[in-house]
UniProtKB/TrEMBL annotation:
Pfam families noted in UniProt: SPOUT_MTase
Reaction(s) this enzyme catalyzes, per UniProt: pseudouridine(1915) in 23S rRNA + S-adenosyl-L-methionine = N(3)-methylpseudouridine(1915) in 23S rRNA + S-adenosyl-L-homocysteine + H(+)
Gene3D superfamilies: 3.40.1280.10
Record text on subunit structure and interactions: Homodimer.
Keyword Chloroplast: no
Gene symbol of the encoding locus: rlmH
Family: Belongs to the RNA methyltransferase RlmH family.
Coiled coil: none
Compartment(s) of residence: Cytoplasm
Positions annotated to bind S-adenosyl-L-methionine: L76, G108, L127, S128, R129, L130, T131, F132
Protein name: Ribosomal RNA large subunit methyltransferase H
Predominant location category: cytoplasm
GO cellular component: cytoplasm
Enzyme class, UniProt record, top EC level: transferase
Length: 159
């Protein structure tokens, strides 16, 4: 099973990117991991709802170019299911046994994701009921995937 994180927003802060790279490196012995970012469209801070929806649609078109039929799409969404680290590990195990080629985690930018992308997803998860900057959410997600694999292997890391 291959795993991928797509962040619509660009990871601009080097300290977040260093953390993401570190967890991707640590995941090497467990899985193939890919990271893609920077699919967001420019938008005015004063944009109204109509403009925001148009931007989300443009981003959705970019996202769809990266998605395959034979993969599991998981969107991060504030309204998604909150899981413990142990539950994430069990879900990784199920995905690994699913026969699908890849799991793609999708993190939206400032205005989230288009409704059509959310509807296309097989899973909707939330890292917390708190709102995080997308850069931080990507780092936390990478760490939780790593933690999940360590739990599955029974290796020390998770306490």
């Amino acid at each position: 099973m291959k795993y991928r994180i797509i962040s619509v927003g660009k990871i601009r802060e080097s300290f977040y990117m260093e953390g993401v790279r570190e967890y991707m490196k640590r995941l090497g012995p467990y899985t193939s991991m890919e990271f893609i970012d920077g699919l967001e469209e420019k938008i005015s801070p004063r944009a109204g709802e109509k403009e925001i929806q148009a931007i989300l649609q443009k981003e959705a078109e970019k996202i769809k170019r990266w998605l395959d039929k034979d993969e599991i799409l998981v969107v991060l969404d504030l309204e998604g299911q909150v899981r413990s680290s142990e539950e994430i590990a069990r879900q990784l195990e199920k995905w690994n046994a699913s026969g699908k080629s890849r799991v793609t985690f999708l993190v939206g930018a400032a205005h989230g994701l288009a409704a059509e992308i959310k509807q296309q997803a097989q899973e909707s998860v939330s890292l917390s009921r708190l709102t995080f900057p997308h850069q931080m959410a990507v780092l936390i997600l990478a760490e939780q995937i790593y933690r999940g694999f360590k739990i599955l292997k029974g290796e020390p890391y998770h306490r």
